[in-house]
Amino acid sequence: MIKTGFIRDTSILDDLEVAGDISGARLISETLIAKSVTVKADVVSSDFKEGKLREILNFGHTLGHAIEKSAGYSLRHGEAVAVGLHFASLLSEELLHLQSDSTERLKNLLERFSLPTTVTSGQYQWDELYQSMAGDKKSRDGRIRFIGLRAPGEPDWIETASADQLLKSYERIVK
């Protein structure tokens, strides 16, 4: 839900912030589920043949999938993607001029709902993660592609990140 709020329907973020935590979110869960499903359905129906637009649903997934693979799939998908969302947001600050308060908002929401936003130093090898991301289905012509944000509700594609820029953003999520 946090992902769909950041890529398309920012009212989801407002609802989650009002909910306060997971127990509060349960009280408004039908509304949140409906809004999140609507975002996904609208994107898929607008891009039925799996063109570029549908890729916005993969916000956070490029690094998230690499972490899942490196962890031997011992992490839940949502946990790995949560770390990927934080990473993609930090990368968006550098390359798409996303405001840092939007990254803070994302990080705070993830943590409020008990989702990880960082990795432990030494937990993953950067070279292994980088190679896994290079093999991601969204990569094109040897370039690792990410879905980033210009602002909440305004996703965009990051297609020109250098290895140094990726490492710099990754180092910001290592604790």
Poorly predicted spans? none
Describe the largest sheet: 2 strands, antiparallel
Terminal residue distance? 25 Å
Helix content: 55-70%
The CATH topology of the domain at 50-171, please? Dehydroquinate synthase-like, alpha domain
CATH superfamily of the domain at 50-171: Dehydroquinate synthase-like - alpha domain
Radius of gyration: 15 Å
Can you tell me the CATH class of the domain at 50-171? Mainly Alpha
Strand content: 5-15%
Whole-number mean pLDDT: 91
Q: How are the strands ordered across the major sheet?
A: 1-2
> How many runs of DSSP E, i.e. beta strands?
2
The second-level CATH architecture of the domain at 50-171 is Up-down Bundle
Number of helices: 9
How is this structure best summarized?
The chain has nine helices and two strands; from the N terminus they run ααααααααββα.
List the helices and strands and how they pair.
Blueprint: H1 2-7, H2 11-19, H3 22-27, H4 29-46, H5 61-70, H6 77-95, H7 100-112, H8 126-134, E1 146-151, E2 154-158, H9 163-171
Antiparallel strand pairs: 1-2
Describe the structure.
This protein is mainly alpha-helical and 175 residues long. The protein has a domain of 122 residues: Dehydroquinate synthase-like, alpha domain (Up-down Bundle), CATH 1.20.1090. The chain is built from 9 helices and 2 strands, in the order ααααααααββα. A two-stranded antiparallel sheet has the order 1-2. β1 and β2 form a beta hairpin. α6 packs across α9. The longest helix is centred in the middle third of the chain and has 19 residues. The chain is globular and about 45 Å long. The mean pLDDT is 91.
